[in-house]
Amino acid sequence: MPADTAAPGPEQAYFDALADGRFMLQHCNACGENVFYPRALCPHCGADALVWREASGRGTVHATSVVRRRPEQGPPYNVVLIDLEEGPRMMSRVETIAPEAVRIGMAVTAVIDRSGDDPVVVFRPAGGGA
Amino acid sequence: MSGLRGAASIAGAGTYGLGEAPGQSELEITAGAVKAALEDAGLKAADVDGVFCASMTYNMGSLTLCEYLGIAPKFSDSSMIGGSSNLAHLLTAMMAIATGQCDVALVAYGSNQRSMSGRLVSTSRPDPFESPYGPRQPITSYALAASRHMHEYGTTREQLAEVATAARAWAAMNPDAFLREPLSIEDVLNSRPISDPFTVRDCCLVTDGGGAVILTSPERARDLERPPVPVLGGAMAHWHRAITNMPDLTVTAASDSGPRAYAMAGVSVDDTDLVQVYDAFTINTIMFLEDLGFCAKGEGGAFVEDGAIAPGGRLVVNTNGGGLSCCHPGMYGIFPLIEAVRQLRGDCGERQQANPEIALAHGNGGLFSSQVTLILGTDGTL
Q1: What is the chain B residue with the closest CA to A62?
Q2: Which of B28, B234, B240, B291 has a Cα at 20 to 30 A from B247?
Q3: Where in chain B is the domain with CATH 3.40.47.10?
Q4: Which fold has domain B9-117+208-228?
Q5: Do B174 and B301 meet the contact criterion of CB atoms below 8 Å apart?
């Protein structure tokens, strides 16, 4: 069967959904795994049976670093890897607390940050941080 | 054991422009290393019929280098898998020699990264799922892995710093090393913070420099100038590209490439007289010593304590000073290989080990991504 090349691919579809305020993950109807970043084929089983599901937004800090800059370049900021409740891991940052205060194991909740040119998924400490 | 064990021997090795080579182009630096390696082997450019070259700036490295040197090869390879590319090339060159695709292979690399800009010039498309968060690449990726290793195994800042101080102590005995003045744990901890937990002294240097090796059949190598260094084993593995997709941030694919390289060589960790690993960051040495089998997973931090990998320690590691203190011109992979060759041939002067017979050279590429392990020996081990 010819591929549907008229519709946006998964990468564009992900960012289109994000622009509409929805943080979407892929779910493989063949093997049941959840997938991020968005792909054309399931990296677990190879099937082209990936469908979109909205992420719960719940996650846990898996690893964290604080990027230090020269003062004239701006304040330090954090870069984290988040384990999403659905399984996949993603890079992000934790906002609303000091970058050094981010801890591995911290429960966090996703929000879509629209302050820049393009919307991005960022996280805040779960419960009260939002 | 594999049919490829000892299928080719290193007949020559050379370096050029390590540290700072102002005013020299990448190709001029590479050519300097090629000249040194050919002279070492007692061969001429006209003898070379296989060329292997990855470049940070030329995406068809072997074409560029062959044209520059006036070589018309029967086989060439520009494969780019990051800093382990040159070691992967050695594996491919070995297969090419074993199957008659070429007779004399040149593996070469050079960069003028320090003099040109002092920064890596990435030719990769920015990762749309990582770059929005501003990781300072590649440093932040390795820092994230270090944070996880510290969390899971209690690895300390001081243990990471031990890797840097050991490398510096070796570098003090290497006249080619870029940084040779004494370095203490306190110096490492108090230097400029870059991406937690790393300070600038947890990170490899940014230098110029080139390296080249000549590989040929064991029979031909025996007829040349220098003691041949047979490649006894080699294997590669990679499990991810971006750090986000590394299956376990504390385990690299060296845990796969290492055992397969040893199995091919028919020797073990216990037989290994010296270890040259790609130390892009202090955490690398700790994780590679674990993954290659020199200590158990999680014990790498304790393993390197109290000068255990410094001169006179329990394991001979990175005798040239490594990427942390000797040189790191964009990609470092060929230099641990060359240092292993020089140690096995007895070329290393003050830092020379007593009659080593088996050496491990390990390359890392990307973001703890591509891993290539080579086991080298003396001709007597073949």
Answers
A1: B148
A2: B234
A3: 9-117+208-228, 136-199+233-381
A4: Peroxisomal Thiolase; Chain A, domain 1 (3.40.47)
A5: no
Q: Are strands B229-237 and B198-199 parallel, antiparallel or unpaired?
A: unpaired
Q: How confident is the model at residue B75 (pLDDT cuts 50, 70, 90)?
A: very high
Residue B380 touches chain A, beta carbons under 8 Å: no
- Which residues does chain A have within 8 Å of residue B148's beta carbon, measured at their own beta carbons? 62-63, 104
Burial of B123 (0-12, 13-18, 19+ CB in 10 A): exposed
Query: Looking at this predicted complex, what is its ipTM?
Result: 0.95
Domain boundaries, chain A: 10-54, 58-125
Q: Determine, for residues A79 and B244 on separate chains, whether the beta-carbon distance falls below 8 Å.
A: no
Predicted confidence at residue B2, as pLDDT, reads 61
The answer on pLDDT for B111 being more than 70 is: yes
On whether the CB atoms of residues B176 and B202 are closer than 8 A, the answer is no
Tens of pLDDT along B340-380? Answer: 999 999 999 999 999 999 999 999 999 999 999 999 999 99
The tokens describing B225, both together, are 């100038």
A111 touches chain B (CB under 8 A): no
A65 at B interface, C-beta within 8 A:
yes
Q: Which CATH architecture best describes the domain B136-199+233-381? A: 3-Layer(aba) Sandwich (3.40)
Chain A residues closer than 8 Å to B134 by CB: 67, 77, 79, 93
Joined together, the tokens standing for residue B183 give 């370095």
**How far, in Å, CA of B177 to CA of B168, rounded?**
9
Contact (CB<8Å) B195/A67: yes
Give the distance from residue B133's alpha carbon to the nearest chain A alpha carbon, in angstroms: 6
The predicted structure's pLDDT at residue A4? 67
Q: What is the pLDDT along chain A (130 residues), one digit of tens a residue?
A: 455 677 899 999 999 999 999 999 999 999 999 999 999 999 999 999 999 999 999 999 999 999 999 999 999 999 999 999 999 999 999 999 999 999 999 999 999 999 988 999 999 999 864 4
Q: Which residues does B43 contact at the CB level (< 8 Å), separation at least 6?
A: B11, B12, B104, B214, B224
